[in-house]
Amino acid sequence: MNIAIVGTGYVGLVTGTCFSEMGVHVICVDIDEDKIEKLNRGILPIYEPGLDDLVRKNVSAGRLKFTTDLTSCLDEVEVVFSAVGTPPDEDGSADLRYVIDVARTIGKNINKYLLVVTKSTVPVGTAQKVKCAIEEELDKRGVSVPFDVASNPEFLKEGTAVKDFMGPDRVVVGTDSPNARALMERLYKPFTLNHYRMIFTDIPSAEMIKYAANAMLATRISFMNDIANLCHLVGADVNMVRNGIGSDSRIGSKFLYPGCGYGGSCFPKDIKALIKTAAQNSYQMRVLKAVEEVNVYQKTVLFTRLQELFGKNFTYKNIAVWGLAFKPETDDMREAPALVLIELLLERNCKIKVYDPVAIPECKRRTGDKILYAKDMYDAVVNADALLLLTEWKEFRMPDWQIVKNSMKQPIVIDGRNIYDKAEMQAEGFVYQNI
Known about the structure:
Shape: elongated
CATH superfamily of the largest domain: NAD(P)-binding Rossmann-like Domain
Mean pLDDT: 95
Number of strands: 14
CATH architecture of the largest domain: 3-Layer(aba) Sandwich
Number of domains: 3
CATH class of the largest domain: Alpha Beta
Strand order of the largest sheet: 3-2-1-4-5-6
C-alpha cells in the first residue's frame, strides 16, 4: 500500500515512520526544504525516544521517503494524510490555512481516486471545508475525479509516541464512505491484530473526539491543581487526597497528579480552540474557561512560593532549575511552565542556571543568553539560593542530596512535580516545599 503524509512535524513524522515499519510505502512531504534535506540525511527535527532508529531503518529499506513535492507523488498513492500544523490564531481559534492549502494542492493535481485523511487536530467542520476546497479546484479544472475525505485524529503522547502508535488503545476514524472505511481498516489492520479497537463515527464526531479527550485530561489536571492549592492553605496532603479519590473506580488515578501547570503542543492550543468553536456557535464552555484560568495561574505557583520564602520583593537571587521541557522524554518547550517562571525571575533580576537532559538547545533558541546553562544537574545548583524542579526526568528522582546541599548557598528545594518525599528531604536538612 502506498500513502503520503503531508507535514513532517511531530504527528506526521511519527505516523509516517510507524506505517512504514508495518510494510506500508510512505512518502513524507514538507515545504521546508532544509528539514527534508536533513531527514534524508537521518537528522530528525524532533526528539522522540526510538524514532530515529525507525526512521533510519525504514529509509534504508526503501519504505520511507522524504520530498518537498506533493504533486509528484499523488498518482502513486491511495491515501494522503494531512498532518500539517494548526497553530492558534490571535483569537484562539485553530489556523487552518495550511490544511486548506494541502486540500487545494490535491484538488489541482489529482487524476484518480484518492482518500484524503485529516490527521491534524482541527475544529468540527474542517473536513467539510477540505472537501469544498478540493471540489472548487476540480471545478476550475473542469474535471470530475472521485475522492473521499475522512478524519483520523491522533492520540500520541510525546515521549511515548512510537509505542502509542504501534499499540493504540483505540483508532478513531470518521467517514461517510464505505470505500474510505475499507481503506482505513486495511491500513490499520497490522496495528489491531491484538484486538485494539477501531471506532468508526461520522466525521464531525471524530473531529470532536480529539478535542473532548484533551479537554477532559486538562480538566482533571487543573482540578487537582486547584485542590492542591487549597490543600496548601488548609494543611492537607494532596498526595493523600489523590490516593483517596483515585481509588474510587468511578474516578481512577490517571491524570490526577498536581504540578506546576500543563504545557505542550496539544492541551493549551486545543482548549483555546474548543472555547473559540463554542463561541462561534453562541455557546460558552464555562468549565474549560476555568480549566484554562487555573493552568495560567498554576505556572506562577513556584514563583509565589519563592516570594513566601524570600519576601515579595526578593531580587538578585541565584535560582537553579531542573527541567525545561513541558514533560519528560521530549525537548518540546511549547507553553512550558519553565518559560513563564524564567520570565518572572528575570523581572526580579535573578541569576538563573538551568539544566535539562535534552531541551537546553531549544531553551537557548527561545531564551538566548539571558540565563546560564549547566553542564549537568549538579553544576546547576552551585551557589544557588533555591532549586526548582519543573520536569520529572528520571535522572532527577534520586540525586545525591549531600552533593546538592554542599553546593547550594541555601538548602531550599521547591518541587513542582511532587516527586520527592517531604520527610526525607527535611531529614536531609532541606527547606522543602511541593505542590
